[in-house]
Design a protein that fits this description.
By secondary structure, this protein is mainly alpha-helical. Helix content is about 55%, strand content about 0%. The chain has a domain of about 45 residues. The protein is built from four helices and no strands. The longest helix has 13 residues.
């Protein structure tokens, strides 16, 4: 039985994806404290999404 399973699985290739990079603590803190996001919202973001959110927040016009 194991030989048969080995033959059946011999041609199968599994694409390995690298693990997602976590959002650095400093960025998560900025998004929570300054950007007004919740911890759960930040935890659900990818690194790219977190950087985009911070860039959008930093680019907003400020009142003088």
């Amino acid at each position: 039985m194991f030989e048969r399973l080995g033959r059946l699985a011999a041609g199968i290739r599994v694409a390995s994806t690298p693990p997602a990079e976590p959002v650095p603590d400093w960025l998560a803190d900025r998004l929570i404290r300054t950007g007004g996001m919740s911890r759960a919202e930040v935890a659900a973001l990818t690194l790219e999404e977190a950087v985009d959110r911070w860039a959008a927040f930093a680019a907003r016009p400020r009142e003088p």
